[in-house]
Amino acid sequence: MAELRVFSTKSYDRDGFEAANRQFGHDLVFLDARLDLATVELAAGAPAVCVFVNDDLSAEVLRALAAGGTTCVALRCAGYNNVDVGEAARLGVTVVHVPAYSPNAVAEHTLALILSLNRRIHRAYNRVRDGNFALDGLVGVDLAGKTAGVVGTGRIGAIVARLLWHLRCRVLAVDPFRDEHLLELGVEYVDLDELLAESDIVTLNCPLTEHTRHLIDADSIDAMRPGVMLVNTGRGALIDTSAVVDGLKSGQIGSLALDVYEEEADLFFEDRSEQILDDDVFARLLTFHNVLITAHQAFLTEEALAAIAETTLANVSAALRGDVVNVVGATA
């Protein structure tokens, strides 16, 4: 088949892609480098490249890819906010993505963050390792009877809503499209203002678009119930991080869990334990005892990695044949 250059690869990417490629036979070239204007020359001559969430697919990078002979960009993720889709179309570069690899993986991680943050598992773990068995400061609440607001009820958000319903929460939801199965359970679709005002927990499971960028800002934080738990496993820029820091300082936000961060491109997916972090906002977040952060690992299950690799390679095969399969912006 074709040569596929895979950017931003880690060991788990290589394992998954090599296993899945047995049925496709592509010539896989794994690159540690993140794709951007400085590294785009590494793609020269390859008909297809594979990228991840923090690779740069701006207009300038896409033009360089096209000039080097690349006709297909394969995202091994669902979101494509890092791609200039209009420029790709003008250049004749097909952009494909993985719309649903394992929504359970992200939904289950969302629930894990909620449970861990509520019961202070992260603090208790560190205490016990230090020989501190005191329970002061570890008091949580029963989730049963609390109101949970789910922003976005697509494939992932719908599962999050179901899981919270099974915990006997009252579940509110915001989405342009109502899920009939959730309605049958008793999930209530409301507008964002009502969700923010009534929810004890707000979880963000929607895509990042021009309309959802900084969906959670100073005004929306002020509109929330005091002491709210805010959880984001969607995209980092759904929240204005500086405003969230202010909300934590004032106590308006009672606790925060993040698997994504709006400036994560320069932080996540690398071992930086020997470095001084120069992101002052992120460093400030780490000082709060009521903040729990994971480094964009919600997708990271064996099942999800296998599905991502298989779907991505199938997408590349189809795109290079000229077929429309999981093409970003396609209507058919």
Helix-strand pattern: EHEEHEHEHHEHEHEHEHEHEHEH
Largest sheet: 7 strands, parallel
Tertiary shape: globular
Overall number of domains: 2
As for the CATH topology of the largest domain, it is Rossmann fold
Under the CATH scheme, which architecture of the largest domain would be assigned? 3-Layer(aba) Sandwich
Instruction: State the strand order across the main sheet.
Output: 8-7-6-9-10-11-12
Hey, roughly how much beta strand do the residues contain? Answer: 5-15%
Low-confidence stretches: none
- Find the count of extended strands (DSSP E, 2+ residues): 12
What is the terminal separation in angstroms? 25 Å
Helix fraction bin? 25-40%
Compute the average pLDDT: 95
The name of the CATH superfamily of the largest domain reads NAD(P)-binding Rossmann-like Domain
CATH class of the largest domain: Alpha Beta
Class based on secondary structure composition and strand pairing: alpha/beta
Count of DSSP-assigned helices: 12
